[in-house]
Design brief:
binds inosinic acid, 12 helices, 434 residues, Adenylosuccinate Synthetase, Chain A, domain 3, alpha/beta, Adenylosuccinate Synthetase, subunit A, domain 2, 4-stranded mixed sheet
Length: 434
């Protein structure tokens, strides 16, 4: 048994989907452990180009069962749309499983997400408006529903009737909106429940069977540690924890099981949504990274904010998630540059930070940069570490040094085979560590 978690090391959109897709070749069970359809994992393979929002990126591998874990918030309508899209492309959904304990994103969560953002005005979080925050808030307030509840008509009606009446009071009196129909919501959820019933299950027997056998289990995170509810740029964060530690909770894995953790980081940095981003470039260089890297949100289409690699942020993520190794994605986006910068610390007045401070300070810091030479040659067709230009190797080595974690995988393009494994850690360092 081997358990590997793939988590984001920055602000999300690091390319986790393609790394999971790659590692899932050898996986028996792939589990999403948090987030919801705010995620947008782009996967390019022989079936086409897909933007997965809820379904684990292992779905393209017929041997892998794919579980939407308990820590996830599921919009059942969005899930069914995603399933239909995959089925239409000829992808089998036979291996799909949904934890009966995963939370349901209700139609009013989406509404409240928008209303809360409007209320926040210029201090808005810049959420994906998918209802993620309100769904997790209701989970914590014990006023949510779990996916298995959709299978029991009487229980479902009892809960929906009470919850919608309550939400209607807030909607009408606080936000001056029209009330929602409990009956219509119930009917919609019932229909989703009937359609999803074959996939909804108790996840623990599935997990236990995998743990008992000689299985490879892959845990798929969403977003990155800088958007972690506790350790990120609060309040400009998501409402769950994208760190590897949370995988234990979100999956139902005992903490005595040892994880290998692959932290995924872009060779530069991007973010969507508001909040501090010290190495952001609001100039031509930022524009270059956006265009060269195709940096537009997979879920919302929003242009991503772009900047230099922030070693402080990635070290923070590595510290929180205990990275075994780093997967460095999109190295090729930097191919044309003469000089490349790395953020190595932050400065505020006469104070220097080598750790991520609280948001009230982080929003005022200036990055401290180190500049290295660019390699000005295409890396897209390279498949061996030794073929990389010396300047690219030096850039990678400096990142390893600053983050304190070895780089095991480097991606140099969106196609499945545009990957370089570093030499010291074998042909597939993740599943078969040296
Ligand atoms: P929420 O998760 O929709 O509540 O959004 C909270 C913050 O996380 C916002 O800054 C979003 O832009 C950001 N966010 C949520 N999902 C993603 C993602 O998949 N990629 C990048 N940023 C995301």
């Amino acid at each position: 048994m081997a358990v590997t978690a793939v988590v984001g090391a920055q602000w999300g959109d690091e390319g986790k989907g393609r790394i999971v897709d790659l590692l899932a070749r050898q996986a028996d069970l792939v589990i999403r452990f948090q987030g919801g359809n705010n995620a947008g994992h782009t996967v390019v393979n022989e079936y086409g180009t897909f933007r997965l929002h809820l379904i684990p990126s292992g779905i393209f591998h017929p041997q892998a069962r794919c579980l939407i874990g308990t820590g996830v918030v599921v919009n059942p309508g969005a899930l069914r749309e995603e399933m239909a899209e995959l089925a239409a492309a000829g992808v089998s959904l036979d291996g799909l499983l949904i934890s009966e304990r995963a939370q349901v994103v209700m139609p009013y969560h989406i509404l409240f997400d928008r209303l809360h953002e409007q209320r926040l005005g210029r201090r808005k979080v810049g959420t994906t408006l998918r209802g993620i925050g309100p769904a997790y808030a209701d989970k914590a307030a014990r006023t949510g529903l779990q996916m298995g509840d959709l299978l029991d008509p009487d229980y479902l009606w009892e809960r929906v009737e009470q919850l919608v009446a309550w939400k209607n009071e807030i909607l009408t009196s606080v936000f001056h909106q029209k009330p929602l129909s409990a009956k219509a919501i119930y009917q919609e959820l019932r229909e989703h429940g009937q359609a999803l019933a074959p996939y909804i299950c108790d996840p623990l027997p599935v997990l236990d069977a995998a743990l008992a056998g000689d299985s490879h289990i892959l845990l798929e995170g969403q977003l990155g540690a800088m958007r972690d509810l506790d350790w990120g740029t609060y309040p400009y964060v998501t409402s769950s924890s994208p760190t590897a530690a949370y995988a234990y909770v979100g999956v139902g894995l005992p903490p005595t099981v040892r994880l290998r953790v692959v932290g995924v980081a872009k060779a530069y940095t991007t973010a969507v949504g508001a909040g501090p981003f010290p190495t952001e470039l609001q100039d031509e260089m930022g524009e270059f990274l956006r265009e060269e890297g195709g940096e537009y949100g997979a879920t919302t289409g929003r242009p991503r904010r772009c900047g230099w690699f922030d070693a402080v942020a990635v070290r923070h993520s590595a510290r929180l998630s205990g990275f075994t190794l780093l997967a460095l994605t999109k190295l090729d986006v930097l191919d044309k540059l003469e000089r490349v910068k790395i953020g190595v610390a932050y400065r505020l007045e006469n104070q220097t930070f080598d750790r991520v401070p609280m948001t009230r300070l982080l929003q005022r810091v200036e990055p401290v940069y180190e500049e290295v030479a660019g390699w000005q040659t295409s890396t897209r067709d390279l498949r061996e570490y030794d073929q990389l230009p010396p300047a690219a190797k030096a850039y990678i080595a400096r990142i390893e040094e600053l983050v304190g974690v070895p780089v095991g995988l480097i991606s140099v393009g969106p196609e499945r085979d545009q990957i370089i494994y570093t030499p010291t850690r074998g042909s597939n360092p993740v599943m078969n560590p040296a």
